[in-house]
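Title: Prediction job returns without error message
Component: structure pipeline
Severity: low
Priority: P3
Assignee: unassigned

Description:
Job completed but the reporter wants confirmation the result is attached to the right record. Sequence as submitted:
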Amino acid sequence: MSEYTSLLSGEKKDDDNGSLRRRSFGSFSRFGPDVETSGVKPSGDSISNIPLVLEDWHRRSMSAQADEAGKTLSPHHKKGQSTGQLGLTQRNRARSFVQNIDGTMVSMTPVEMGRHELYEEVPFLAMSGLQRKEHSLSVAFSSYAAQLDTLETDEYMAATTGKHLNPEEKERRLSQMSLLLLDELEVDAITVTTPLIFAVLIASMLMFNMGYNISVMNAPEPFVFPGHSTSAWSMAVAAFCVGGPLGAVLAGQWADQRGRRGALMITTWLFIFGGFVQALAPSLNIVIVGRTIIGVASGASTVLVPIYLGELAPPNLRGVLGTMTQFALVIGILVADLVGFVLANPTGWRYMFFLTSAMAFFQLLLTPFLLESPRWLLGRNANSNKARFIIKKLRGFRYDEEVETEVEHYLGASKSQSCNDSNDNSGGSSAKNPMLEMFQDKKVRLLVISTLVLQVANQFSGINAVFYYSGLFFDGVIENPLVGTTLMGAINVLATYVALLLMDKCGRRTLIMWSSAGMFVSCIVIVVSLNGYFSDMVALGAVASYVCFFEIGLGPIPVSRLSS
């Protein structure tokens, strides 16, 4: 292999004094305004053809790194550096420098810099609709870093051989490096460890239980303490919604004081207790108490699950995991309707309520595999060994240096996403209210107002009547109201899948407009049909259309907008 070919392929050639060495990517850690970040189109080169040079430094433990670095450092340097910074003395590892929010400088490889950007830009929430943002950030940084690498390679070739890269060689180098860096940045999306699988399973069961209890009251309505009034039954159904806001408020306190894992345990016990109260209730009033308890658990789940999974999962997986939990919720609604065909009778309705406790108890059996959030642990103690152990298990790391780099990502992202103003010199005595501060900031005021309006529209759209009272709604419209309820549940699952596809292809504003217009027209058709101008089947079709239009826009977008 000639010297020119060797240099172009990315290999290093050191002379005795180390003068012939590739430079690092420079001191760039953010996207510059003059950098093209629209992505690089691959030129057909397979990523398997890209030469990968695995350095011995990556394979050593933290103690081995410290021992070898100690041989070359003076006592003064040994005293001033931590083990996480010892890699800076290695000659064969190209690294760049990133400035943290607190002003400290941290050395990172280009791939680590990209992961750092993802951690800071993607919120610690597992919510549907984040996939496009995650991928766009990865593509932007890989393109940016690849262009820097191509420029540096061209400069190095000119300095060592007297020849610049020709356009074809630049394009090939740009394409290869862009593909390589993108592949490395998105490796987390295909690397899922067992502890993370258990975390997703337990969190999904919470959302499934919530969805189950949204629709569980539809099928057994004629058999639960027959002779009850419509207002009394409405109280029993609405008790779930009364407990929801209370659970959402308490969840934040539980998560901060007892940790994310402890808060999830409290929620699980509430589901168990509430299910038992409903199943053993001697009167409808006790059913109302049980529904309120389950409402508290469900409201807490809506807060805790996105936070917990978002703090455990890498940025590339948060959108996917948010999608999974969303599916768990709508599938829970459908399962409650299907179970009604078997247990909605004078002797089986108590078993329908008991299933809530049974699912929560099964979840409780899995809690020994449930890990605490490393972000919460690091927030309480940045030197937490437990947090580092958990990160090592969650990511499947083998080397201590990888763990320390991930810790730096967590700490940097936590500070950048914090609502507290780190530059406030008042000592915290006159700290502003985050909500008031958002309304005072002209840059985000419109965004906050629009988000609140969308949330209000979501709740007042009338969709709750379909899911909470569909049994009464379809009574007299079709022969068996449970068939109509189950049909709406199935359509809800399919529409959720379609909505997730459309959110990555269409704009949120477009979907909101189509969703609102479709729901408006569907409501008109429903009212006209129920007044006898059209058949009952047209009314049923209009309800199905109403649910579909809700799920493609007004349903998921207000929630996904919170993460934006």
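Comment from assignee: result matches the submitted record. The beta strands are 96-99, 105-108.
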